[in-house]
Amino acid sequence: MKSLIQWTALALSLTGISLAALPERFEAGNKLPFVPNKFIIEVDDLARIHSKTSLDAVYSSLEERDVAIEVNREFDTAGIFTGASITVRDVVAIQNTPGIKAIHPVVLVQAPKPVFEKRVTDRNDPAVPADSFSTHVMTGVDKLHAQGLSGKGIKIGILDTGIDYTHPTLGGKIGAGNKIGGGYDFVGDNYNGKNDPIPDDDPLDQCNGHGTHVAGIIGADPDNAFDIVGVAPNATIFAYRIFGCGGSVTDDVIIEALLQGVKDGQDILTLSLGGADGWTSGAGSVVASRIARTGKIVTIAAGNDLDMFGPLSLMLLHIEHRTSSVIPLQSATVGGAEHPPIVYYATFPLPIPGTWPIYVLSNDTTNPTDACDPLPADTPDLSKYLVIIRRGTCPFTQKLTNVEAKGGIYSLIYDNGNGFQGIEVGRFAGNTSLIQAADGLWLVEQWLAGVPVTITFPREGGSVGFPQTRGGLISTFSSYGPSNDFYFKPAVAAPGGGILSTVPEDGFAVLSGTSMATPFVAGAAALLFEAKGKTAEVGRTARTLFETTAKYVPSNLTDADPLQTVTQQGAGLINVYDALHATTILSKGELILNDTASFNPEHTFRVSNTGSARKEYTLSHITAGTALSFIPNSHFTVKGPVPLSKVGATAVITPSAFALGPGQSREVTVRFTPPVGLDAATFPVYSGFIQVAAPSENPVHVSYIGAIGKLRDLTIVDTTDEVIPDPIPAIFNADAEVQVEPTNYTFSPTDYPTVFWRQVFGSPLVRIDLVAPDIKIVTNITPRPLLARAETDRPRPRPVFSFPWHPGRENGTFAQVKIVGQIEEFPFLTRNDDDLGGNGFHSFDLEEAVFANGTTIPNGQYRILLRALRVNGDRTKQEDYETWLSPIVGVQVPDKPAEPEPEEPEEEVRDCEEYENEGRLTPSYIVYLGSFVARRA
Ligand SMILES: *[C@@H]1O[C@H](CO)[C@@H](O)[C@H](O)[C@H]1NC(C)=O
Ligand SMILES: *[C@@H]1O[C@H](CO)[C@@H](O)[C@H](O)[C@H]1NC(C)=O
Ligand SMILES: *[C@@H]1O[C@H](CO)[C@@H](O)[C@H](O)[C@H]1NC(C)=O
Ligand SMILES: *[C@@H]1O[C@H](CO)[C@@H](O)[C@H](O)[C@H]1NC(C)=O
Ligand SMILES: *[C@@H]1O[C@H](CO)[C@@H](O)[C@H](O)[C@H]1NC(C)=O
Ligand SMILES: *[C@@H]1O[C@H](CO)[C@@H](O)[C@H](O)[C@H]1NC(C)=O
């Protein structure tokens, strides 16, 4: 963020009115995760409709009304989900169809991206954790194995990239009687979330590897070269392949795979997903929650760094526990000057041949936009140089494309303080890497002094162990909860950092990420089912059991530091041994005190003694760090690590001591008082534990979170210039300029308005409506004045997404405001981060002059009304929205000579190479990069 602020200031002072454009603004297209015109409908149970299946009844009802739909897939699992995934233009018509219970937009879900990856070939590789068993030791899994528990008789379905079941450590085969007992490929190798899946019976994955790694964490057989063993090595695993070799998946595929898992009789289903957008509130989470309610255990990870929304009745994990303290990186040797080898962030040597003189693009080592714009005309042919580029402002690929335009092939990018980490460079992978800021500054100094520095990338001998200092703590890339609407997230922490497991081609690799923690808990759940029986009761209480028996995690390694905030560690680090052996059972794992507006001070839970001896209990209150979650006097949340205060809540526990005989239980009441003296402007989120201890057993606990401040008062829509210098929200016109004056649009492929906004906090509902130009409405979002014009090329047109949400209310008025018609509605939109190449903004292209119901917007003058509902706001009340009214938008569609061709929605074209580099495990690369790594200490 800092660099952007500087950049803005710089741009203003240097260029005056012709402010530099944001060339990356539209680069990644529309960021909204919804798939245009695709919906998941849920229909009534069969019994309610006479003599037909309920879906058929719905189809014929639609047919009678001439509503054209295309059925993509059908779901029919009684008691869990009956419905279909359909493509339809007029979703308003769908809403008024008898038999349809719910409509969800189809959501695109990203593949999991491990944070760091390294294929290892021998045990002396520095990436191999010193003690591969330590994750089992720290969680008590080793002791359970010693007791003979191994997950025998338990079936686990893994929804992931497939499994390379030919791996000897995974049994070498697929089918009944093998470790990998079966599965299905729902998508095929080439599926990327935007094309059609090509399913087949074989879930073999030899191109990606993520699912194979996950499978090893659960089920690796002992007696392998690295002596690793899965958490539940005798469990039977089914592979449900929902990701192709790269790319994303739509949530209707996830639902189909979940339901298949139920049909196949899986006891446990585990999924590691990449992005969190939409997932917790979408149809997928509905289905997963219902499966969990039947007593199966569902473990889900969702992203390493994103905000989330909505409650989850599942085990949601978000944590890591790094065991290795050194990561293996490579170094380049320096010639022409005395300097130690320069470490670059890659596991394997960059395949750059020869020795290279350097070329520095900017003499100014504080230039925030280095290489963001096309390089000056007098730039020499860069093909003879190793180009030195400063990180910042625009995506790496943009910088590298500009360098490439001048012939440059190889480069090193120096850090700008964002953090030393792996970086995402798409098709430039192998030609560049990140180096530390200090090395970059040194290189620029030499350049300015005219020293002829050269760089060589040795193929061998360049390995260095780069120290990591977070062992035993929550990984810094783990995101913070709670959800935007203040539900408890994550549930528990599990080992996920520096995990050694199986990968295709009989290999082994070290990966980190929430995706690694998730199967660990799935394996733990298998041990639980094995020990206690596969009953629904055991399944339904598993989350609470794992939470109450988890271990507190400190926030730092010194004694003076508070315990890590519950918003990051959840109830603590899972301890499977204690969970399976606990004889003090608590009825709840989480208490939500809510915010100041809805403060819920009093809570009760039940303590039960299921042991065979009488126990004397002592209850106590243990505070964890209070997360000062907002930057004071700003609308921005702090990027991790979030500062912690030791000032916590107080709690009165009644009774605080009592005895229980075997089989006895009693209720406990806790009354909380929020911490005092904290700056409410930081939106402090306090947390801690009510501990229940008895002599000679490990204490158990209930975790709580609460907030000082009102969620409903939190600003949703960004009007600052911290990330985007233009006044936002805004309509961008055909020339990608902010529209100021009334403007007519012809809605040709190059002339239509784009609604552009940024969210600093999530919103349960964002609406875009068309209103009369002379509407009288009090708006409360006021963008800054226009300073300058953007200069970018027009973005690629994208299909329009339609999703009206309220049957019958889409016309006339919405939330007390008279509207001409509804344009769009987005449920549960996440906040944006400041990565303009990533999730930095929301934009919506109104490409066609049509309302959400598919009817044409008549030519005329209108304004666009953008509304974002505040958290915990009432969606029927205008005052609970943040509201912005656009300048006059004219619809002037020329008369069409003939019936327009019905157009296939265009596939969004993302760089193919980009997909190829996503989610892949190639022998020679690290990749998986992203801002989250920046937060490593
Ligand atoms: C798995 O089962 C086999 C055969 O029943 C048994 O010998 C082995 O000890 C079990 N594995 C573990 C880790 O307990
Ligand atoms: C950067 O410094 C070098 C060496 O002093 C000089 O030749 C070059 O012109 C400078 N470039 C710019 C853009 O100032
Ligand atoms: C917090 O309180 C609000 C208002 O009563 C309620 O709608 C919301 O569900 C509560 N949140 C949680 C997480 O309990
Ligand atoms: C953790 O402790 C170390 C050593 O005392 C200190 O340098 C560091 O700033 C601390 N980190 C945090 C996040 O408090
Ligand atoms: C838009 O079109 C209308 C109708 O043709 C016209 O009256 C109006 O002046 C136009 N506005 C602009 C800004 O061109
Ligand atoms: C609103 O109502 C008008 C007239 O009743 C109708 O023609 C139009 O299609 C409706 N618009 C929407 C968005 O439903």
Automatic annotation (TrEMBL):
- The record places domain PA at 368-424
Name-wise, this protein is: Pyrolysin
Query: A biological process (GO) annotation for this entry?
Result: proteolysis
Q: What is stated as this protein's family in its record?
A: Belongs to the peptidase S8 family.
Which keywords appear in this protein's UniProt record, sorted alphabetically?
Cell wall, Hydrolase, Protease, Secreted, Serine protease, Signal
Q: Cite the CDD domains for this sequence.
A: PA_PoS1_like, Peptidases_S8_5
Q: Where is the composition biased (Acidic residues)?
A: 900-916
What are the start and end residues of every segment in region (Disordered)? 893-917
A GO cellular component annotation here is: extracellular space
Residues of the Peptidase S8/S53 domain: 151-571
- From the record, give the transmembrane residue ranges: none
Q: Which domain of life is it from?
A: Eukaryota
Q: Where is the C5a peptidase/Subtilisin-like protease SBT2-like Fn3-like domain?
A: 593-702
Instruction: Cite the Pfam families for this sequence.
Output: fn3_5 (PF06280), PA (PF02225), Peptidase_S8 (PF00082)
Q: Which residues form the active site?
A: D160 (charge relay system), H210 (charge relay system), S515 (charge relay system)
Give the signal peptide, or none. 1-20
Single annotated GO MF: serine-type endopeptidase activity
